[in-house]
Amino acid sequence: MIQQINPSEKVTTEVSKLFKVLKINQLLRAANIRKASGVNVQQIFEFI
Asked: Where does the source fall among the domains of life (predicted)?
């Protein structure tokens, strides 16, 4: 069976890959951008 990928899912996947390559999570930590609880800061930036 051929699995079709929703275009919005593909964009989300590509953005996640880009964030990993650019090490955005490490940059956010270095800039002291943190949250006490809830959704991960990286996920918020990826959404934006």
From this structure: Bacteria
Phi then psi for residue 32, to 5 deg, are: 60, 35
Reference 46, options 8, 6, 18; nearest CA is 18
7 Cα distance to chain centroid: 16
* Long-range contacts from 33-39, C-beta under 8 angstroms, 24+ separation: none
The residues, ordered by sequence, that sit 6+ positions from 33 with a Cβ below 8 Å of its Cβ are 41
| Residue in 19, 36, 17, 37 with CA at minimum distance from that of residue 27 | 19
Per-residue pLDDT of 9-35, as tens digits, reads 777 788 888 888 989 888 888 998 877
